[in-house]
Amino acid sequence: MRLVEIFEAIPTLFLLLTFVAFFGRSLYMMMIIIGLTSWSGYARYVRAEFLKLRQQEYVQAAVASGLPLTSILFRHMLPNGVAPLLVAVSFGVASAILAEATLSFLGLGLVGEPSWGQMLDQAVKSSTFNWWMAAFPGGAIFFTVFAYNLIGEAFRDAIDPKLSRKAGVGS
Length: 171
Prior knowledge:
Structural class: mainly alpha
Helix content: over 70%
Order of helices and strands: HHHHHHHH
Largest sheet: none
Strand content: under 5%
């Protein structure tokens, strides 16, 4: 967990700005930096979820019945621990989209490539403010982020064993 805390101390946006300033603009470099700095939040989330699940009655019963650790982890804890993680992953994808749009809005995104952030920047820098120049790219960012959040919620609802038992699927 100390390695996770070290990675969490790195500010993603500042690191992105630094790499763009020194090494140029590359979408793949941005994706790698976002991925390297954001995995630590998921690691902490999974650890906390598994520590919470370890105290559940069904896990205690599985330990008491003498099941092997791999069976307890993969058959009992993992299906219950992955469902909330999917929602966090969808928020992560949404934050990566917002980070790229932020860099493009600041003028540090890819040059010559279309980006919603660049479109918003052009709307702000325009001599006369035209509402459609800001509304459509901003709406596209909003609806894309919203769609990823809904997809994460749908995955959680589909995979979560507790919800499927309440709906009568597992009975």
